[in-house]
Amino acid sequence: MDATALQRQNRRIERLKSQGVSRSTVLVHEECRPVLDSLRPHFIDPEKAETLSALVEQLHKKVKPTNVAQVRHLSPFRYPGGKTWLVPEVRQWLLAAKQRPSVFVEPFAGGAIVGLSVAAENLAERVFLCELDDDVAAVWETIFHGSDDDVSEFSRRITTFDVTLDNVRAILESKPRSPKNRAFRTVIKNRMQRGGIMAAGAGLVKEGEAGKGLKSRWYPDTLAKRIEVLRSMKDRIDFEQGDAFEVVRRFADDPEAFFFIDPPYTAGGKKAGSRLYTHNEIDHEGLFALMASVRGSVMMTYDDAPEVREMAQRHGFRIELVPMKNTHHAIIHELLILKP
Question: How far does the signal peptide extend, from start to end residue (predicted)?
Fold first, then answer.
């Protein structure tokens, strides 16, 4: 290219920049090149942004939900809002990142299946879990910060517990003072109350699986094994009982921090969070604003509601739809809200 042609090209590039158009290099498979070439004229038209976004959403949209039976179960909890189905999405998100996360932060930990999976697969330098609920926190406090004797006693009580209605009620009505005793009561509550609901007012399992009643969700040896595995990962996991917003702010300036945000679903008029969780009052607008301000990468998960989509778009997040099965085995879609 001669000097005159080069000057002409530079002037064109500068003119396009003034119109908001910039040059970008992409890698493309030869099978996809014809499609890219046909789309190329649309990339400089700002009026096509919404259409192209919808196309990308369709490309990311899965047809079938994740088979949760193929995901390793690490958490001792069973949660109606559990995220086992999302583990493959998080794994792909982390593996596609340009850098290994310095820390993977899950500030609304709950059953913490996502953070536990990241630690087990060594996908981040360390995992930081935070949970506000006293009962749930007692379990994580015992497993990750208790003494070896505390953890052994915790597991032993689980494997030797005689599941009868009287014994279950006696544990649920007790007022434990130590974290390990509170942790045991929490596991009983989580396994014996309908649907794993931890909030006050939940009734006990009646029929259960195959008419087994209270014993239908009680797998003591499995629970003890999970506790043993988690205990072996204690050097990779930090746990803290506290406020999720404060934890996010602590890591907000780390560009290599990755945040997984799964708050109680009370946005958009949803009431599930208030029924399922003790702490369900969340400032969703404030949460979106906070997550938009962090320097690291963010993945949030929410029910698909117009109010949530509006908040995500207003704060510059990208939205993907991911299918999952609800408790009635119907396929529904949840939103993945992402910040690169």
Answer: none
- Residue span(s) of the chain under CATH 3.40.50.150 come to 67-132+242-340
- Distance, C-alpha 128 to centroid of its chain: 13
CATH code for residues 67-132+242-340: 3.40.50.150
Q: Each residue of 26-70: pLDDT tens digit? A: 676 666 676 676 677 777 777 766 666 656 555 555 545 444 455
Q: According to DSSP H, which parts of the chain are helical?
A: 3-18, 33-39, 49-60, 87-95, 113-120, 134-145, 148-160, 165-172, 179-192, 220-232, 244-251, 272-276, 284-293, 306-314
Cα separation of 187 and 253, whole Å?
36
218/291 Cα distance (integer angstroms): 38
CB 313 within 8 A of CB 319: yes
